[in-house]
Structure of HNH endonuclease:
Amino acid sequence: MIDDATKEIVRKRANYLCEYCHSPERISTTRFTVDHLIPKSIGGSDELNNLALACRRCNERRYNFVAGYDSETNAVVPLFNPRQQIWSEHFFWSADGKTIIGVTPVGRATCKRLDINDERYPEDDSIRSARSFWVNAGLHPPSEDPRAS
């Protein structure tokens, strides 16, 4: 079990953003979860370098997957790892701030595995609608990647 002090370290380190979709925790009705990059079910630990802050949506969709399929290269590749990779090297925001675009095999596979833009079920574009609201409120997209500095 991850103690409260460790959870707070993870939250601060992530600048209170989901480390996958960059949703801000401050506008969520509940605190984000601590995700295991290598799930405990396949041997992962509670060590800080194996933990990431994740919104419930991304955490549930990531489940215990560590890899995804990149349709551009037809390869199975590891999912984005915020402890080893910089978000802005694998993803960028569309001009309207509503869509995350994967620009590398890792980025594309992560977008697909986590259905980061609700593309699997186009009739349910709730995340893009929420992002549109956040953009209009001046809360999104985040100004910088905390690992890029």
About this structure: The chain has a mean pLDDT of 89. Strands lie at 33-36, 51-54, 67-70, 75-78, 91-93, 100-102. The radius of gyration is 15 Å.
